[in-house]
Amino acid sequence: MQPWMFYAILSTLTGGAALVFAKMGMKDANENIALLIRTGILFLIVALNAIASGALKNVKAIPQKALFWFILAGVATAVYWIFFFKAMRTANVSVLSTIDKGSILVTFMLSYYLLKEPITPKLIVGALLIIAGTIVLIKP
What we know:
The protein is mostly helical. It is built from six helices and no strands.
């Protein structure tokens, strides 16, 4: 197994658990406070990881263009999580999470146009299955 695949599987496992844990906490707390606490803990752990790996010594070497994309990604992530937590307040997290995977279509289009990544038949079939599942869940 390639390292990226191992990390992707760990990401899937922890990401799924994180959503359920957040939903459990939201039974007794406002979604905005829940997101603030979650994001604060996230920031702390990510900062400690950057410090421990020695990555901060290279922070001044980040090109302006890269910094622009990181800032844009940060803004998109913040808006995404605000909307996601608002939806999670009243939705079943299992359904919401599956519908959320419809974002894969946006990822495919942007990765093709901005990153020039190829769209293979295997990728198309996988995307269509995800989209079909999303449609099944959003239909009344």
